[in-house]
């Protein structure tokens, strides 16, 4: 390489804007600052004097460093498409049917590209000068597992309400070819072609795609299919690394280079939040103008009657409580199809927090039975303990104190393991992100040093091998009758807290306290309202237990409990008012 011969080349480098050039063995100019190789080569006036020049170049081989480092031309939406593909495959591995990926999620994503005018429309919006050419003579079906491609179909039919694609639509897709990146087209500040503009884009009325939005797409697809996965389950599977989310970009194909502004778009350094994904789900569903979702009926997993049974089993409460939760669901109208079914095009589009609602119903039933004021529940526990000692052969009464002690121990152990796992989580990806190619060697060197240090410290701290990723499960707590170390309360009786009146059962507790002050006290004279700072220890424990189970904030659960109470007492007050009116009518 001869620096003197390259002095005549005065153009600035497209990568670092420096004017410092050298010559490769093949006669091409390269930047001595960032080692960027151009397509320009030194002009040779008379090749007859150096007949072996071409032979030497062929023997040494042409360097393709530029192409291998730049990779494909790709857009930001293709990166999100790749993440959605990974998440759909993960859900498939968890037991979800393939139609969720091939039909539902694909159609939702296709609809998003169309609504945001990125594809499947006559005039797609491209942020760079290059517009890929549609291959008219090479029609092929788009495979999500194949190389990322941005699809476009000028004759795309409207979104199918059934969630399935027609066969004609499959054969009329016109995929854009993935071309190799050229120096003039690739963005200097990002690996993607539109990374810089995408990070600055703020278009009114258009939902901007982010990594958390991918979970909203997945949950919408699960909700459309009425699968047996709640939003809290989905986020927990993300937390347990069963569904790609943190550092999902490291599974991109090698040719999709990420650097610069791509860091802020695809780099995630926090766990997904329940309320945030819930709001994004409604936002995406409304933006896509999706039709009314399939009805949530009584035989559906997301119905409160089924979810209440699931959570009663998980927190080791008696099976008899399920009759009471079903009664509360019926009284409040929370089990009706119209209330449970998501309708994005409705005037006030909202979906039910199915898991939070079910847990809130259980909390209300516990308050109806035991009051949870740090007094009545312990008195009833004393009665249950005395009865169980005298009648050891009979069906045992439910002892709230014993349940509290067992559950608190199990909860503390589970929470400690969860906190330790979070503290040990490695946020840095195996595939480091860097701002530019100049920083690439430094980023990889730092990553190598971090990995070596982690190995050394792990050897010093703990010589035992780290446990592998645990298998996914819908239950976090498991209770069986055969477990001799811990008591299983599923078969215990509520006879100690219920009393018979004719053919019906009533609670021995006639008092109740409300979880909020935003409630009219005229509904019931024996209702008391407590400040949050005065909540009983037993009530606080139950809130913490269920909040940990769903990975939500206690304030969210407390708010849902208040909504259930409001509906319940409004119903009770209206029934009482009707009875008093009928009595007055009879007198007259």
TrEMBL record:
Residues 7-39 form the RRN7-type domain. GO terms for molecular function: RNA polymerase I core promoter sequence-specific DNA binding; zinc ion binding. Residues 270-460 form the Rrn7/TAF1B C-terminal cyclin domain. Its main location: nucleus. One of its GO terms (biological process) is nucleolar large rRNA transcription by RNA polymerase I. It comes from the Eukaryota. It is found in: Nucleus, Nucleolus. PANTHER family: TATA BOX-BINDING PROTEIN-ASSOCIATED FACTOR RNA POLYMERASE I SUBUNIT B. Belongs to the RRN7/TAF1B family. Component of RNA polymerase I core factor complex that acts as a GTF2B/TFIIB-like factor and plays a key role in multiple steps during transcription initiation such as pre-initiation complex (PIC) assembly and postpolymerase recruitment events in polymerase I (Pol I) transcription. Binds rDNA promoters and plays a role in Pol I recruitment as a component of the SL1/TIF-IB complex and, possibly, directly through its interaction with RRN3. This is TATA box-binding protein-associated factor RNA polymerase I subunit B. It comes from Rhinopithecus roxellana. The gene is TAF1B.
